[in-house]
Write a structure and sequence with these properties.
The radius of gyration is 31 Å and the shape is globular. The chain is 22% helix and 29% strand. The strands form 14 sheets. Strands 1, 4, 5, 6, 7 and 8 form a six-stranded mixed sheet that branches. Strands 38-42-43-41-40-39 form a six-stranded mixed sheet, sandwiched between helices. A five-stranded antiparallel sheet has the order 31-37-34-35-33, covered by helices on one side. It is an alpha+beta fold. Helix 8 packs antiparallel against helix 14 and helix 10 packs across helix 13. The longest helix is centred in the middle third of the chain and has 35 residues. Its EC number is 2.7.11.1. This is S-receptor-like serine/threonine-protein kinase protein. It is an enzyme of class 2 (transferase).
Amino acid sequence: MSLILLLLLLCNCSLASQTNQNISKGTTITITESWFSPSGDFAFGFLPLPTNSSLFLLAVWFNKTDDKTVVWSANGNFPVLEGSKLQLTTDGQFLLIDHTGSTVWNPYQSSGAAYAALLDTGNLILAATDSTPIWQSFKFPTDTILPTQVLFRNTTIRSHLYDHDYTDGKFELSLQSNGNLMMFPLALPTNLTYDAYWETNTIGSGTQLVFDANGTLYLLLNNGTRINITTSSFSTTAYYQRVTLDSDGVLRHYIHRKNGWTVVTSVPSDICNTVNSGTGSGACGFNSYCQLDENDHRSCLCPPSFSLLDPDKPYEGCRADYETPLCDGGDQSGMFEFKEMVNVDWPGSDYEHYNSFNESQCRENCLHDCFCAVAFSRGMDCWKKKLPLTNGRATASLLGKALIKVPNTSFSPSPPPQFPNTKKGRKVWLITGLLSLAVSLLILFGSIITLVRRSQSNHKSLAPDSLFAGPAMRCFTYKELEEATDGFKKELGRGAFGIVYEGFLPSEPKTCIAVKKLDRLLQEREKEFTVEVQSIGQTHHKNLVRLYGYCNEGINRLLVYEFMSNGSLMRFLFGSSRLGWDKRVDIAIGIARGLLYLHEECHSPIIHCDIKPQNILLDDELTPKISDFGLAKLLGRNQTQTNTAIRGTRGYVAAEWFKNMAISAKVDVYSYGVMLLEIICCRRSLQMELNDREEEAVLAYWAYDCYREGKVHMLVGNDAEALADFDGVMRFLMIAIWCIQEDPSQRPIMRRVNQMLDCAIVVPPPPSPYSSSERFTRSPDCYRPLLEG
């Protein structure tokens, strides 16, 4: 009896720091504390990471399962150390503060929460005094959906990197703004997506993704019908349930029985053969291949003579265990042999295909081709593959054989020629080498002089076409473009450097194009042409306007772009056909991704220098694409700043242009911040007040004052859609204020802007974007027209 009492006493003591009551203002939760839902099914608090017990995750988890399965987390990318705490402050802010006192997570950047609570559904909420939720974890899921949870358009869930690593992973499920439900692989470490590997094809009709109380996950369509995503239904009163986008990119429906979690539905059923993007590594890393185990889970394996980059992280790919010899034209016969793998292939790495080679011929051809790393033979078909190997998979349906080319361990190369190791011998070779170098330089200089003289005498071409030609660009004749535009008949618009006309590709009369005809003979226009062709021709991104080709004939300079049917963003912000808030969010994110590509991810970093709504064009689906690289400054790989004359458009130009400072990509960040304010408010950055003083209203001043004074709702006026997403408006406003900081070092880089837009990191409260002297000398009426208009 005494033993039972002692056990009860110990249980009561252990629960002293745990409660299922609401979290009230002024409460601090430490590392050792947890809070329960009323039923005790869910818990909220800190969990040590399975891989590192000194790091902690702020999470919601199933409390009564043995493995404490996490269903939501606040800081997966930024685990905290002991000494961190969670506070619901007296002014109603919910803050995760690390051991240094820095705020790591702040889901609701405004005061007003009366209490926090963990509901029996597993939903963590911040509530107002009348118990209305003002923030809830169900609207910001991580990798898991729970019964009764509903996801609306523009909501995503993202896999973890590994099963016990809560960092953002490489797969995403997204209910798009157009109603299509899709799964994408991501190009880590960015948030850019490759081609979808699974989708519902419900463009225009999908409205909500619902996990109902009957245990069915379905997509609700706008006509009231639904598409079941999971095929099994189980009572939520009999089983714990969850749907999780696992680290291998499979969406799985789990139910919990006595012996643990059981998978009842997997979407897609075969991840290895489903992920097959044109770019990217596929379901596993580069040089590896994907194979399903007995539980239909992904295993990532290496081919012979390759080993994992990191044995603890098999999804990161494999590296060759040998040094790849140079393709120098030398005889490599005898250096390699083949190791066979049946029904394994890397279809993303093909560079040559022969449809009349048997296996023996396929081997021989690959053996004598220094580019060939693997050959795949099936019947009379032979494919040659180069490194890195991509989209690898093992499946019985391939009915073929992979031939992995590996070093022949029995091969002994001939020794290199030996030269006399004497001072006299070294002197002879040195003199011979210097003479050869001198002759080569004379020949080179002579060739250059000859080419220059020829180019000066030839007025038909001011620059060799090879300078501009990219792999997918075409050189058009002036006559072709004149016919394509019906004599340059229909004008689409005018810019500082020329006129844009509508036309149709000569070879594809149904493909509409935009032909930019640059002004003639002016030297700066020729430089404009060169810059545009060199910069755009090397860029390929879904948020950049595509360049089909050019004309460089005599005095004519023309550029041929894809046609953007919906024109510029400007008319959708300031005209009568204003876009809804959700679509404006998509556009802002798309532009940010395009800028990130220009600044960090394309072959040579590019500063655009004239980001504004007029230079953001929209296609049929209102996808934003950055255009007009005429003012771009193309930088070298290791160059991050440049000094140049003032460029850009008034109202979007950063302060450093006027201060004789080095110009960096931060000027684009500034312009993006101004444009983001315009996207939020649907108001111009500069607006004249028609009075005797002809004062100018500055949107940035008004926006910051609204933020500082807690009047953010005034920025969107009666935009009901924006007001319904007040947290999103607040987040975008804070990002914009960070971007327009006067000091370039205070502005974030575009990679961080993207992370903040995607909610991957917390947006800290921004400081004033302008100097104190400017703040107190400007007229208080400088934004009055904005309030009235």
